[in-house]
Specification:
There is one protein chain. By secondary structure, this protein is α/β, with parallel strands linked by helices. The protein has 3 domains: 293 residues, Polyphosphate kinase middle domain (polyphosphate kinase like), CATH 3.30.1840; 181 residues, Endonuclease Chain A (Endonuclease, Chain A, 2-Layer Sandwich), CATH 3.30.870; 172 residues, Endonuclease, Chain A, CATH 3.30.870. It is 36% helix and 21% strand. The chain has 19 helices and 28 strands. Strands 1, 15, 19, 20, 21, 22, 24, 25, 26, 27 and 28 form an 11-stranded mixed β-sheet that branches. Strands 11, 12, 13, 14, 16, 17, 18 and 23 form an 8-stranded mixed β-sheet that branches. A 6-stranded mixed β-sheet has the order 3-5-4-8-9-10, with helices on both faces. Strand 13, helix 13 and strand 14 form a beta-alpha-beta unit. The longest helix has 32 residues. One of its GO terms (cellular component) is polyphosphate kinase complex.
């Protein structure tokens, strides 16, 4: 039997706190019972990095996970470090619920990031050797033979060199603007027989079709573009002596927000914020490990950084996020077994999606195991073309450049249907794309709204009004994930297709709220929208579970989500545990709660699933004295989601759908391959399968379950006698 893998602890504030005081003395406001959001998120990335370190993971998947961690750290600096620096600059003294100041968080996160980067560099060398064993080479320009060098030089001259612009740095040429996440060469040159050195910055023009790695015509050789450029500087500086060439990279703050309440035009405001972000303060400078100290100091000074803290030396490859290019190689034997999403059993073969929903009542969708294209996209496509459909309303948070849903909405408008779309312009890093979508939809005559002032619209809802044989009927899709076909193949998400009358009435109220912002008394009978009802409802249901458990025992709460950050929800779950209620939490990344503290959380277990797909679904379950309740929706248990975003959580009442949700929870809680159990000190231990036990992770098991559902449905269809055909239009 393999020994469980335990990750090193980086949550300094939690060390030595494995035991809680006796229950009577416990103060649930005490900072020691709450883990730090930033540090727990970094711990999640340590778990992702372990997937890259794990020999059980196929080689190119290991490379992919390494690239994911690098990309995540870039985003962490842009969003989280940028935010901490703003707090420090503004003199914010308020401590977090875990008792840390912004300065303390910055210091601790920097230490954790440096340790992570060290691990990444060590792993990159290991993967480099393993790739060579499979004749995949990430190679420096100097290690190529003369013919190979000539091939790349010629390619560079013809395809890239015209785009390269050297920028001198001297009294006549001020320090140039350095764009976010760009790779740059700092080149020191001088004329022959001249002792005077000059500096120039050369941006590596990655993007717009130019890859980070250039490939040779023969063999699988990946050569970094910056290395090709650095070894062909004679093209940029003919006749000059190259004294040195050093690589650096900057990360800018992405937290640039203006007062929305005072804006006359939200579209103009967001466009202005995007311009501000381009020139936002720099929060990190990465330099090669052997950079000249004078050059390093000059860069830090020019960029306004604290050289001792904000400059990160990189001993290995810079910007490992670009390894996605290597990970994308078409070498099936080095990847996970291919997975093709299946048609949902209740939709496969159905002639009309609305008839299928009406016959089933509610259909639970599980992505990526079941196809997004033949369920959600099909729902919108048929709505756009069905002559009985009168109106389509939806929320749009993120989608892709090749989104078919946008085209279907445009088709619907052309077909004379009433179409209203609530576009969230403030979806981080998708603002520009959403502005383009909004403009395109408006030109087509679609009613475009930007949601409620001061709140992000994060809900995932499509609402369709159709004239059925019995009168108007409301159909809906409510999900946990974005309407993005790309992420639907990579993220685990849930959704329901339903024609439940009460949910339809609730959605009518919900969209009236979104398109007006007016908040009169809206009587939601089934849906739990945020910020109006969701948080208070979750707290009430936790307290109800405590009371029911006190009466007859058997209390059980199970949440599956991306993050548990809200202090009120955390404290309520502590109270439930103290009362004897069992609490099972499947939390992907940030989790403030510390499980297993005697007298406080000894009835709580926290599991994190890290595997082939990115966990993104949200499920809320309450045993409720035997009258079980299941909910799914767009919200995590985070303060921002519960109080500052428009979210929708819906009950799942259909017996078959509830059984599927139960299977998901049980499968993941019992996962022995991809599950990590949180310890009382905030560290995580990866479960290992025992001898003879199931060695596959929950993602593989849920793929198999989807295949089994479809096979069983097809078997029953073959056995079912043919009845009288339904008349068209019913």
């Amino acid at each position: 039997m393999n020994e469980p893998v335990k990750l090193p602890l980086s949550l300094d504030g939690a060390k030595g706190q494995a035991a809680a005081p006796a229950r009577a003395e416990i103060d649930l406001n005490s900072p020691e019972f709450y883990l730090n959001r930033e540090l727990t998120w970094l711990e999640f990335n340590r778990r992702v990095l372990h997937e890259a370190q794990d020999a059980r993971t196929p080689l190119l998947e290991r490379v992919k996970f390494l690239a994911i961690v690098s990309s995540n750290l870039d985003e962490f600096f842009m969003k989280r470090i940028g935010g901490l620096k703003q707090q420090i600059g503004a003199g914010v003294k308020t401590l977090t619920v875990d008792g840390r100041s912004a300065r303390q968080q910055l210091t601790e996160t920097y230490a954790t990031v440096r340790a992570l980067v060290e691990e990444m560099n060590v792993l990159a060398l290991e993967l480099h050797k393993l790739l060579k064993e499979h004749e995949i080479y990430v190679r420096s320009y100097k290690r190529l033979n003369p013919a190979q060098q000539a091939e790349l030089r010629d390619y560079y001259i013809r395809n890239i060199f015209p785009l390269v612009t050297p920028q001198a740095m001297d009294p006549a040429h001020p320090f140039p603007f350095i764009s976010n996440l760009s790779l740059n060469l700092l080149v020191c040159v001088r004329y022959p027989n001249d002792e005077q050195n000059s500096l120039a910055r050369v941006k590596v023009p990655i993007g717009m079709g130019i890859p980070r790695f250039l490939m040779l015509a023969e063999g699988t050789f990946f050569v970094p573009l910056e290395d090709v450029m650095a070894n062909n500087l004679d093209l940029l500086f003919p006749g000059m002596e190259i004294v040195s060439c050093e690589l650096f990279r900057v990360t800018r703050n992405a937290v640039v927000e203006r007062a929305e309440e005072q804006a006359e035009d939200l579209l103009v405001l967001i466009e202005s914020e995007l311009r501000d972000r381009k020139f936002a303060p720099i929060v990190r400078l990465e330099v090669v490990a052997n950079m000249d100290p004078v050059h390093r100091g000059m860069l830090a000074a020019e960029l306004g950084l604290d050289e001792a803290n904000d400059v990160f030396e990189v001993g290995g490859m810079m910007a490992m996020r670009d390894l996605f290019q290597v990970a994308g190689l078409d070498r099936p034997e080095l990847h996970d077994v291919p997975h093709a999403p299946l048609d949902h059993p209740k939709l496969a073969g159905a002639l009309n999606v609305f008839h299928a929903i009406r016959d089933a009542g509610t259909i639970l969708l599980q992505h990526p195991y079941e196809s997004f294209a033949t369920s959600v996209e099909r729902f919108v496509r048929e709505a756009s073309r069905d002559p009985k459909v009168l109106a389509i309303k939806m929320t749009l948070y993120r989608t892709s450049a090749d989104s078919k849903i946008i085209e279907y909405l445009l088709d619907a408008a052309r077909n004379g249907k009433q179409v209203a779309v609530v576009v969230e312009l403030k979806a981080r890093f998708d603002e520009a794309a959403n502005i383009r979508w909004a403009s395109r939809l408006e030109v087509a005559g679609i009613h475009v709204n930007y949601g409620v002032v001061g709140l992000k619209t994060h809900s995932k809802v499509v609402f369709v009004v159709r004239r059925d044989y019995s009168g108007l009927r409301r159909y809906a899709h409510i999900g946990t994930g974005n309407y993005h076909p790309g992420t639907a193949r990579l993220y685990t998400d849930l959704g329901i297709l339903t024609c439940d009358d009460v949910i339809g009435e609730d959605l009518t109220e919900f969209f009236n709220y979104l398109t007006t912002g007016f908040t009169p008394k809206r009587n939601y009978r089934k849906l739990l929208p945020a910020p109006k009802l969701l948080k208070s409802s979750l707290l009430e249901k936790i307290e109800r579970e405590i009371k029911l458990h006190a009466g007859k025992g058997g209390g059980l709460i199970q949440f599956k989500m991306n993050a548990l950050e809200d202090a009120d929800i955390t404290a309520a779950l502590y109270r439930a545990s103290q009362a004897g209620v069992r609490v099972d939490l499947i939390v992907r990344d940030t989790c403030r709660l510390r499980p297993g503290l005697p007298g406080l959380s000894d009835n709580v277990r926290v599991v994190s699933i890290v595997g082939r797909f990115l966990e993104h679904a949200r499920i809320f379950y309450f045993r409720n004295g035997g009258h079980e309740e299941y909910f799914i929706g767009s919200a995590d248990a985070m303060k921002r989601n519960l109080e500052s975003r428009v979210e929708v959580v819906t009950p799942v009442e259909h017996a078959e759908a509830r059984a599927e949700l139960r299977a998901i929870l049980d499968t993941q809680l019992n996962d022995q391959r991809s599950a990590w159990e949180m310890q009382a000190d905030g560290s995580y231990v990866q479960r290992q399968p025992k001898a003879g036990a199931e060695a596959r992770g929950s993602h593989e098991l849920l793929v198999e379950a989807a295949e089994r559902r479809l096979r069983e449905a097809n078997r029953l269809k073959k056995r079912r006698p043919k009845g009288i055909a339904r008349r068209p239009g019913h």
